Amino acid sequence: MALFDDLVSTEILSAEILGVNVVTGLAIGVALVVMPLAAPVLRPIAKATIKGGIYAYNSAAELYNQAASGVTDLAGEVQRELSTTPPAASALHRGRATTGTG
Asked: Are 90 and 82 in contact (CB under 8 A)?
């Protein structure tokens, strides 16, 4: 039980919180020093990444437009075929002609 009491004690708890605050402060301080030095290196990398994303988006949009156009053309072709096919032949294509024999 003494171990549990030591863990719950305010001295250890406050020391852990203080340690976390110190580490957080140091991380922020290091970031403030390192970021201006790293910015000239990171900027071209960020730009190249953004350009790649835009290129991928444009390529995907073009591919989608081509696919949609192909499906639209195919649907129009099918509609034209259905409009020129006589009704009896079109019923055979659906599976069975309805003759009323039940």
From this structure: yes
Task: Answer yes or no: is 1 within a domain.
Answer: no
Q: Which two tokens stand for residue 35?
A: 């970021």
Contact status, residue 88 vs residue 97, Cβ threshold 8 Å: yes
Mean pLDDT by 10 residues, the chain (102 residues): 55 58 84 86 93 96 95 92 72 57 52
**Whole-Å CA distances, 37 to 4, 34, 58, 76, 86:** 46, 5, 34, 60, 77
Task: Report the pLDDT value the prediction gives residue 54, as an integer from 0 to 100.
Answer: 97
Domain range enclosing 24: 12-93
Number of domains observed in the structure of the chain? 1
Q: Is residue 99 part of a domain?
A: no
